[in-house]
Amino acid sequence: MNSDFYLCFIHLLANQLKWSGNMQGVVAQNISFTEFKLNGFYALGEWRPLLFIPYFLMFLLSIVANCMLLYVIISNRALHSPMFVLIGLMTIVDLGGPVLFVPHMLLSFLFGWNGISLLGCLIQMLCIHYNESCQSTLLLCMALDRYFAICRPLFYHKHMEVSNFLKFIIVPLIRNGVLITTFIFLAGRLPYCATNVIDHCFCEHMALVQLACGDISINNLVGLLTAFLIPTVDFVFITISYVIIFISVLKSGKTHLKAMKTCVTHIIVMICTLSFALIAFFRVYHIIPPVQTLKVYLVCELLLYKMFCMSKACCTG
């Protein structure tokens, strides 16, 4: 009698434990984090606040350098040509990059404020990725500017009028907005129940999507499509433009040699921008620690400033 009672009790207990385990699994699947922690540099522990000083200085240098360049372009009427207007727009885009995430990162270093909501993370992602896409579009516009200036000089001012130039730039900008908004929207619909710790100093698409516990195949597909249709397509058109320019210059001899100097400068700017963007957003996790990419990004701002100054020297010299 007692043995039957104990067997019945054990059976009921086993069923209860099994039911509890199933319920925990269901609850885990239904829970989706809405608050995240940006876990960059947390391995440094008590030494982490010291990072505020070098990163603040780099941030300040980036802002001051780009503002100075923008002031020079605006205040000097001789620099109000289409090429320098594009450089000024690139400067504004370069200002937006650090402003979007570095202040939050600095506060995290100093006070440990590393929390961010899902909505805030998505907004930051939208701004950062659209900012980067605008860089790619502006590099394409610079290539078109040089193409018209060197290969079709008689029609340069006609093509570079505001009304005509907007026809070239409006389609890429709409493309950027549609694609980036799409993958940000898809990322916002995912359930995040694995963890709420982002191994990064700012919100980035792949870093966030990897925390999802749902199917992310459509997110990966849209992400790859975006990477192909924005930077890859822009790079192809930029390359074609410069190939045509080089062929035209070789045929004309020394006629377009001075204009060719600005092309070389733009090519250097393009290579630096694309290279550092690839390091920052398509890094190899086991070779380059995620948090180290910010050093590259911030130093890149100073490099771009020096390149733009070289461009001014080449064009006015």
From TrEMBL:
Domain G-protein coupled receptors family 1 profile: 65-282
Pfam families tied to this protein: 7tm_4
GO molecular function, a single term: G protein-coupled receptor activity
Keyword Zinc found: no
CC annotations in GO: plasma membrane
Regions that span the bilayer: 52-74, 83-101, 107-128, 165-187, 228-250, 262-285
Stated name of the protein: G-protein coupled receptors family 1 profile domain-containing protein
Source organism of the structure: Pygocentrus nattereri (Red-bellied piranha)
